[in-house]
Write a structure and sequence with these properties.
Number of strands of chain B: 0
Strand content of chain A: 5-15%
Number of helices of chain A: 18
Shape of chain A: elongated
Shape of chain B: flat
Largest sheet of chain B: none
Strand content of chain B: under 5%
Structural class of chain A: alpha/beta
Number of helices of chain B: 4
Number of strands of chain A: 6
Distance between the termini of chain B: 43 Å
Largest interface: A-B, 110 and 83 residues
Order of helices and strands of chain B: HHHH
Distance between the termini of chain A: 75 Å
Structural class of chain B: mainly alpha
Radius of gyration of chain B: 18 Å
Largest sheet of chain A: 6 strands, parallel
Helix content of chain B: over 70%
Oligomer: heterodimer
Radius of gyration of chain A: 25 Å
Order of helices and strands of chain A: HHHHHHHHHHHHEHHEHEHEHEEH
């Protein structure tokens, strides 16, 4: 292919990525934006086979590898439950980082006598790509709850982490100075270890911010890989993701009331936490579905606070049925959506949209908070951390400083919970022991169905 | 390519990246992150480039592994983003 034509197609693909990100920033154009990006990526993948100077080695293997990737990726993306989507995104991000690191390694192995700048870019790609890969695997394990969601901190941990980082940088200098394959391998392994150590101390509630950050990291890795391969397209696309990912990480941190600095360097400052007084039996008021139905029936305004538990129980449709029933009785119903309800910012909106809940009923935190004093009943379905007053009252607890839904201002609070188990962040919720709180234990979907039936019978 | 040209491309891309997402609503944080994640799957392009020139067993195996990983990232990323956004359709525009 003519090299000018090839470069122009690369430019068109880069533009399609800019349009994709722009489109994804507004609800109306989001889907189209994503499709434009996908089209651009497809064109790039086809055109690369006709690159000027292509040597056409391994073409069959390449096609088979792409086909295999499609066979793994598409079903995973299609079949994943919406509740498990954050960890899938984390995993996709991780494999992207791993791919970028591998590409740079291959380029390093095949060429002899790269320029110093190219070696530095290679080192950057391998280090950051490896961190992104191993870090994403840990976030996946945390979100999938294969391992504990609490911060994992061990005595002297921060010295181990700092030591690993210093060793990574040391071997990086070694690679740049003297080259050779062994230093590169050692550096890659150390970077993998650092990625693990870096994410382990991060608490469950901060995991989404880390995913977003690692996403930006992978973007920069791809950009550096573009430098190594002398590809403008990779430089532009990688930098776009790196820059927009950084902004997005900051916006997410702001929405959660977390400082980005605190999240990032939590690894270096985290102290082992004292185990909370678990298992201490304190009196709580639990009620029957009938009690809950009566409370709801005589309310004038009800706010439903959905959490991840609602999604896990697949109770979105039942909760909508309940809301419809209450509306028919002339009761004012709204959903109070915390920015990080679910597992990621905006996750709950996706989940409720899946159940056809009308957009107008979804009220964001800043708008719903002032209305709680006029609210008779708050129904908390499978949420915990986002209504935990400890975020305001207990300095030093993992969620301190996170804005919460002020449900304690309302007349009555009903918690639908499976058990007294604390939320994702792993902290006790004082509100459960409050006099105006009623607990309804059981599977969220089951409990809601019983409440709906009780309401119909009234 | 000269370093100065690359630096220019890099800096301008940073600004474009900052600009295009600066006003996104919380509702779209998750799909936007997922979409950006799919875009860096374009490393597939680079993976195919190196595989195309590879002549040893070691580099070929590594680059084929990179192609598999990058394809999963790119294709899976776009598909899962589309699935998320599909659920927003027909709900009217929320500002």
């Amino acid at each position: 292919m003519n090299s000018n034509l090839y470069a122009l197609i690369g430019l068109a693909v880069a533009v399609s990525f800019i349009m994709a990100l722009k489109g994804l920033s507004a609800p109306k154009s989001a889907r189209r934006g994503n499709l434009i990006g996908a089209a651009g990526a497809t064109v790039a993948t086809l055109v690369v086979f006709f690159a000027p100077g292509a040597e056409h080695h391994n073409t069959l293997w390449i096609v088979l590898a792409v086909a295999f990737g499609v066979l793994v990726g598409v079903p995973a993306a299609r079949k994943v439950q919406m509740t498990q989507m954050p960890q899938l995104v984390a995993l996709f991000n991780g494999v992207g980082g791993g791919a970028a690191a591998l590409v740079s390694i291959v380029e390093y192995l095949s060429s002899n006598g790269e320029s110093k700048a190219a070696v530095i870019a290679t080192v950057f790609t391998v280090v950051v790509g490896s961190i992104s890969f191993s870090g994403s695997v840990i976030t996946f394990l945390k979100l999938q709850e294969i391992m504990t969601t609490r911060p994992v901190v061990f005595p002297g941990g921060r010295f181990v982490i700092a030591g690993t980082l210093v060793s990574v940088l040391g071997t990086a200098v070694w690679v740049v100075q003297s080259g050779g394959n062994t230093p590169l391998l050692v550096m890659g392994l150390l970077a993998l270890a650092f990625g693990i150590l870096f994410v382990l101390p991060v608490g469950g509630a901060d995991v989404p911010i880390v995913i977003s950050l690692l996403n930006a990291f992978t973007g920069l890795t791809v950009a550096a890989g573009g430098y190594v391969l002398d590809s403008t397209l990779l430089i532009v696309a990688g930098t776009l993701v790196g820059a927009s990912g950084t902004i997005l990480t900051r916006l997410m941190a702001a929405a959660m009331g977390r400082s980005l600095f605190g999240t990032l360097f939590g690894a270096f400052t985290a102290k082992p936490q004292e185990a909370g007084a678990v298992g201490e039996a304190r009196p709580v008021k639990s009620g029957s579905p009938d009690d809950v139905a009566i409370l709801l029936n005589y309310a004038q305004r009800v706010v439903i606070v959905p959490g991840f538990g609602l999604a896990v129980a697949q109770a979105q449709h039942t909760v909508r049925e309940l809301a419809d029933l209450l509306s028919e009785k002339g009761i004012d119903v709204a959903y109070g959506i915390h920015p990080v309800a679910g597992r990621m910012p905006g996750h709950m909106n996706v989940l409720l949209a899946e159940a056809n809940v009308p957009y107008e009923q979804l009220v964001e935190m800043e708008e719903v908070n002032p209305t709680f004093p006029q609210t008779d009943v708050v129904l908390v379905v499978g949420a915990n951390d986002v209504v935990n007053p400890a975020a305001k009252t207990t300095p030093g607890c993992p969620i301190y400083g996170m804005p919460i839904l002020d449900v304690s201002q309302a007349g009555n609070v009903i918690f639908l919970k499976r058990s007294m188990r604390p939320g994702f962040a792993g902290i006790e919720n004082e509100l459960l022991y409050d006099a105006k709180t009623t607990l309804l234990f059981g599977d969220a979907k089951d409990s809601l169905t019983k409440v709906v039936n009780a309401l119909k019978a009234l | 390519m000269s370093s100065i040209v690359i630096l220019t491309i890099f800096v301008l891309s940073v600004f474009i990246g900052f600009e295009v997402v600066s006003k996104v609503s919380t509702t779209l944080h998750t799909p936007l992150m997922s979409g950006a994640n799919a875009i860096h799957g374009i490393i597939l392009f680079g993976a195919i480039m190196v595989a195309d020139k590879s002549t040893t067993v070691l580099t070929t195996s590594l680059s084929i592994a990179a192609i598999v990983l990058a394809t999963i990232n790119m294709v899976g990323g776009f598909v899962v983003t589309d699935r998320m956004l599909e659920m927003f359709k027909g709900k009217g525009g929320k500002k």
